[in-house]
Amino acid sequence: MPQINVTIAGRSYRMACEEGQEAHVEGLAAGLDSRIEGLKGTFGEIGDQRLIVIASLIVCDELQELKSKIAKLEAKVAAPAAPTLNPEHLAHTVNAIAQRLESLADGLAAQA
Known about the structure:
Layout: E1 3-8, E2 11-16, H1 22-43, H2 48-78, H3 87-111
Antiparallel strand pairs: 1-2
């Protein structure tokens, strides 16, 4: 299993990851580190541990929001779609029915 080094909030961490996932894990760590640096700009130096906890809560909140959106979209896709009326198609269908009715009426009139 590959080993990588990542830096988060100025600290280096040695981590194991799946083969081929090194760049992905490094990118995740860089993203978290970037969030922490942004929080330092907002809150100042309140301690690395607190900043890491705040960043983690923000990421968890975003994840929960995305899961909720996905669930709503999945429910929408799973629900039967209401038929949509295309005005042109509807007009064409009504005209076709009218022509058929006229043809039937002409046939009946000819028999009478």
